[in-house]
Every structure is written in C-alpha cells, then in structure tokens.
Amino acid sequence: MNQQMIFVNLATLDLDASKKFFAALGFSANDEFSDDTTAAIPLSDTVSVMLHTHKKYAEFTKKQIIDSKTSSEVLLALSASSREKVDELVDKAIAAGGSPTGEPQDHGFMYGRAFDDLDGHTWEVMWMDPTAAQG
Question: pTM above the 0.70 mark?
Fold first, then answer.
C-alpha cells in the first residue's frame, strides 16, 4: 500500500526563530528542502511542516495571511506514544518559547495538552490507549 504524505504549510514571521523552536522540540530542518525562505521540518516519515516566510507563503495563495496569534485557521494535532511523551513535548515547547493553551484533557483512556508555537499556531499533543482505540 502506498502511504500518502502530508505537508503542513505554515507562515512564520521569523524563520530562524521557528527553526530553533522546532529543533528544541527534537525536529530538525531537512536542509535539502530548506532555504532562506522555507524550512522543511519532518515530523515523521509521512508528515512534514513547511515553514515559510510571509513573502514565500504569499506565493501559494491569493488569500490574506492571517495573524495566527489572534485568529485561528487550523488546529494541528500530533500523536504521542504515552502520557509522559505528551508532557515531554509540550514542556519542551513551552521551554522553547511556546505558550500553553487550554487545559490538559484527561479522559483516562485519552490524554492531551496543547501549546501555541512562536507564531500562534496551536498544536495539540495527544495519547490514546491503543486497547481503547480497538473498540
């Protein structure tokens, strides 16, 4: 089966600061697909975040680029392998300059927390008990 890939494209006001932020979370830019206007940040084998300067991002859309610190267009969710990994990643994000957002969600079989990155994009990190997901 052919696995599809997803490329999440986000506008950033400070590309270098955003690259450092994601590196602090353990995600380094792929230099082969990065330049002074774009940073390709692989999150897994099939998911990458493409961080673009506003000027570069504007080449892909005729729509106005929103202020992601005051408006929301998308919520990004990442899975984690355990509750501890949820806390680890969100704590790293906060230590790297991100902001906690919302309250932790603990439903016993599912646990999640969220943070806003340097540009205000909201990232939810969640864990679900695999036996609960099986039904």
Answer: yes
